[in-house]
């Protein structure tokens, strides 16, 4: 049983990929290797069934099988958050109850693309809290690029005031530094409870700046999770220069992995190259890498390795 999610959460919650075999079936052996790899690299938590986890391409049964495998392998060592966004409240509740029974630490919910006004957004998340129930801590995902829903800082603060079980914000708006400053100012003044803020902007493309603005860490994916772990650790001990130097070494590859449409294929290819997963298969609709893409990636990896050696 993993520790329940709470407002003190910090560090790096890695968004996992979902490993498949070359024929597109769930690959549970690679899932175990991936969990071991993440633990070895020092992540603080895992987030499964996110957008980059191809959640919408899994059946309900596959989703449960995958979550069960991850939780069994994690074996309570670190918290596991499960993406529970759904078109309706009944499937959201069904998946949530199922994964919480299996030992998940909490769930993450994003707004559906149908929401238009501030009041609609606030009302929707009031219903999310009621649907999940008083025992389920949850994370609010603010990712307008994927949802099409714009939530201002004020709207998010209203949601947090209304929802005692919302303990974390996955902050993915871009640009979002001013929003981060507003959240921390509001909680510092006691206008809203202190809540955990983990950043997910493009594989952590603004991570050092977001940490400086008061983020508690990262919740995103990247084929080199040790980058986020080391950057967050350097920042926590007050070595801002080291945090930026490390970040800069990985930035070209992180940027390449953030290309719209092809990013997941890049991440899975790199995980396969690193021996973490057996296949880089992406379910349809999904991108395939060209020979030129692979050449680009290998060139960037070599440069990254050279820079890391120089930094020691």
TrEMBL record:
Cellular component terms per the entry's GO annotation: cytosol
Keyword Signal among UniProt keywords: no
Matches recorded under SMART domains: DHDPS
Positions annotated to bind pyruvate: 219
Coiled coil: none
Lyase keyword on record: yes
Entry GO MF terms: 4-hydroxy-tetrahydrodipicolinate synthase activity
Protein family according to the UniProt entry: Belongs to the DapA family.
Protein name as catalogued: Dihydrodipicolinate synthase family protein
UniProt organism field: Ramlibacter cellulosilyticus
């Amino acid at each position: 049983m993993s520790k329940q999610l709470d407002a003190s959460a910090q560090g790096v919650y890695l968004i996992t990929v979902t490993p498949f075999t070359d024929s597109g079936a769930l690959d549970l052996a690679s899932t175990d290797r991936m969990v071991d790899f993440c633990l070895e690299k020092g992540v603080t938590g895992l987030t499964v069934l996110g957008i980059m986890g191809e959640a919408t391409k899994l059946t309900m049964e596959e989703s449960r099988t995958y979550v069960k495998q991850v939780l069994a392998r994690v074996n309570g060592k670190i918290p596991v958050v499960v993406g529970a966004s759904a078109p309706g409240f009944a499937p959201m509740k069904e998946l949530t109850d199922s994964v919480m029974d299996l030992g998940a630490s909490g769930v993450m919910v994003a707004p559906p693309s149908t929401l238009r006004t501030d009041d609609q957004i606030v009302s929707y998340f009031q219903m999310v809290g009621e649907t999940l129930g008083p025992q389920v801590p949850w994370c609010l995902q603010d990712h307008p690029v994927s949802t099409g829903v714009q939530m201002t800082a004020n709207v998010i603060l209203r949601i947090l005031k209304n929802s005692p079980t919302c303990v974390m914000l996955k902050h993915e708006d871009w640009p979002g530094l001013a929003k981060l400053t507003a959240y921390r100012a509001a909680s510092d003044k006691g206008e809203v409870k202190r809540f955990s803020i983990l950043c997910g902007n493009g594989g952590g493309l603004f991570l050092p700046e977001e940490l400086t603005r008061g983020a508690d860490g990262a919740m995103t994916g990247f084929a080199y999770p040790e980058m986020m772990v080391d950057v967050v650790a350097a920042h926590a001990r007050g070595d801002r220069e080291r945090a930026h130097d490390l970040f800069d070494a990985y930035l070209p590859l992180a940027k390449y992995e953030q290309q719209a449409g092809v990013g997941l294929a890049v991440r899975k290819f790199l995980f396969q190259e690193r021996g973490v997963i057996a296949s880089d298969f992406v379910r349809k609709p999904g991108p395939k890498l060209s020979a030129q893409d692979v050449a680009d990636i290998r060139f960037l990896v070599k440069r990254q390795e050279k820079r890391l050696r120089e930094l020691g």
